[in-house]
Specification:
Layout lengths: L17 E3 L9 E5 L1 H6 L4 H4 L2 H7 L11 E3 L3 E3 L2 E3 L7 E8 L5 E7 L14 E2 H16 L6 E13 L3 E11 L5 H9 L3 H15 L1 H4 L4 H22 L2 E2 L21 E2 L23 H20 L3 H31 L5 H17 L4 H14 L7 H5 L3 H12 L3 H10 L7 H12 L4 H10 L30
Helix pairs in contact: 4-16, 4-17, 5-6, 5-9, 6-9, 8-9, 8-10, 9-10, 10-11, 10-15, 12-15, 16-17
Bound molecules: adenosine monophosphate and magnesium ion (MG).
């Protein structure tokens, strides 16, 4: 039995990049769940991980050899307002291990106590948000979306005080890295060009090795990050996902989804949908996500200006050129994604207007986003109209829509297999996530385990999980989500 072979390259960077800090000790840690499949991918010794020593590490009570716990410094724009100093206030990076794909992954404890960046907070995490992040981040991974992962969730045996006393918990988050747009902003705002260069080189080395070869490496980095984010946001939208808090400190440079605070998957489709209780202006509504993403990328580009050219005007010109490409990159990925979901063939000139028309139709008829696409997939399989949901059949124009769709989709096996691969049967519906959290708060984790299990294979129809497919009944609807920090 061996503890993880940690390295920590970030801790080798200059002191101003982070603060060294030990996780807080907790009284009586207990397991909620270990992600055995992910542990396997990371080459961790499962027997050790599931032992008392593993539990002690994942609750922050002991640090194994090689771990150099640090809290990373960053800044960011929150809902458009500049905050010069954020940083890991309730997360501590233990170090990296190697994934079976050959590249490193950060292991970070979330909810392990105060750091120099905690500001007014206690650095702790209540059980609810930990369960929520576990469920949703693992569902995203199974849906094929780049995302941070959850290796484990444990309870701490102590209470965390918010408006009331809540059970405390720690989540072990796994990411290609935790470097954010806000990390670059931290150095840019301090006019620390040396720091920016060090950070950019670290990022190229870790996430964009192909860029390292290029002559204009920082230009190539900017372009590569824009590309990954355009594709990520399109992927979210193809699944009806609303991130909810796309602040620049919640946008990774690696292109992974991060921060599952107020996020949600839509049930009924309306483009302006917002769940986050703090997003009163709808800044991060489903439809606004590409605009928010582009704005964040402009902030990222700004931080690279000193590295793009000594001539400020020239640097701005270069950055603007790349930022202009975002829209097209996003649109290509977005429309291609919907064309897959609808099994469409043909040129963008015909498929794009049909996608737009379909989304308009879905919104008008208040169709359930996920159910509509799975129903259509079943219909493509056997042409049995009883698969189609009632609100669809009842809405005027459905027959006309269906005949137009048939003309564009074709009836080959290939259409069906494309649709099956693009349309999940299961998503983490809000009311199900809420149900799992409520049971967990009473010490009953079977609902959580079952949901995690079901969502690990979201594209396969399995009778045992059929109940999890259904949209919420009127009394079950969740209309707002909370960051729950
Ligand atoms: P978030 O809303 O999760 O993106 O966090 C924004 C900032 O608040 C980050 O700097 C977090 O580290 C910090 N933060 C969030 N929750 C806590 C907490 N319970 N204790 C200390 N800092 C926190
Ligand atoms: Mg955050």
């Amino acid at each position: 039995m061996t503890s993880p072979p940690f390295q920590n390259h970030y801790a080798k960077l200059p002191d101003r990049f982070y603060a060294r800090v030990d996780p807080a000790k907790v009284p009586t840690p207990e397991w909620i769940r270990v992600n055995e499949a992910l542990a396997g991918e990371l080459g961790l010794d499962l027997e050790w991980l599931k032992s008392g020593e593993g539990l002690a590490m994942l609750s922050g009570n002991t640090m194994p050899e090689g771990a150099e716990p640090i809290a990373q410094a960053y800044a960011g724009h929150q809902f458009g307002g500049w905050v010069p100093q954020l940083g890991d206030g309730r997360a501590i990076l233990l170090g990296e291990v190697k994934h079976e794909d050959g590249s490193p992954r950060d292991l970070q404890l979330k909810g392990s106590g105060r750091t120099p960046f905690s500001r007014g907070g206690d650095g702790k995490a209540p059980l609810g948000p930990v369960l929520r992040e576990y469920i949703v981040s693992e569902a995203m991974a199974a849906l094929g979306v780049p995302t941070t992962r959850a290796l484990a969730a444990v309870t701490t045996g102590e209470s965390v005080y918010r408006e009331e006393a809540l059970p405390g918990a720690v989540l072990t988050r796994v990411a290609a890295s935790h470097i954010r747009v806000g990390t670059f902003q931290f150095f840019y705002a301090r006019e620390d060009v040396e720091g920016l260069k060090t950070l950019a080189d670290f990022v190229i080395d870790r996430h964009y090795p192909e860029v390292g070869e290029s002559e204009a490496r920082y230009e190539a980095l900017l372009k590569a990050v824009i590309r990954r984010q355009a594709s990520l946001i399109a992927r979210w939208m193809n699944l009806g996902f609303i991130h909810g808090v796309m602040n620049t400190d919640n946008m990774t440079i690696s292109g992974e989804t991060i921060d599952f605070g107020p996020c949600a998957f839509m049930d009924e489709f309306h483009p302006e949908t917002v769940f986050s209780s703090i997003d009163r202006q709808g800044r991060y509504a489903w439809i606004n996500q590409p605009v928010a993403g582009n704005w964040n990328l402009a902030r990222f580009a700004e931080t690279l200006l000193p590295l793009l050219s000594d001539d400020r005007e020239k640097a701005v010109g270069i950055a603007e050129g790349f930022l202009h490409e975002f829209e097209e990159l996003f649109n290509d990925a977005y429309f291609d994604g919907f064309a897959e979901k609808l099994g469409l063939r043909g040129e963008a000139g015909t498929t794009r207007p049909f996608v737009e028309k379909t989304l308009g139709f879905m919104a008008e008829s208040s169709l359930d986003f996920t159910q509509f696409f799975t129903a259509l997939t079943r219909y493509a399989r056997d042409e049995n109209v009883s698969h189609l949901p009632e609100p669809f059949s009842a809405s005027p124009g459905s027959e006309e829509w269906l005949s137009e769709w048939k003309g564009l989709a074709g009836d080959e096996e290939e259409t069906l297999s494309r649709m099956k691969a693009a349309n999940p049967v299961l998503i983490p519906r809000n009311h199900r996530v809420e149900e799992a959290i409520q049971a967990g708060m009473k010490g009953e984790y079977s609902v959580f385990h079952r949901l995690v299990e079901a969502l690990s294979d979201p594209f396969t129809e399995r009778g045992e999980f059929e109940d999890l497919e259904a949209p919420p009944a009127p009394g079950e609807k969740v209309t707002a989500t909370f960051c729950g920090t």
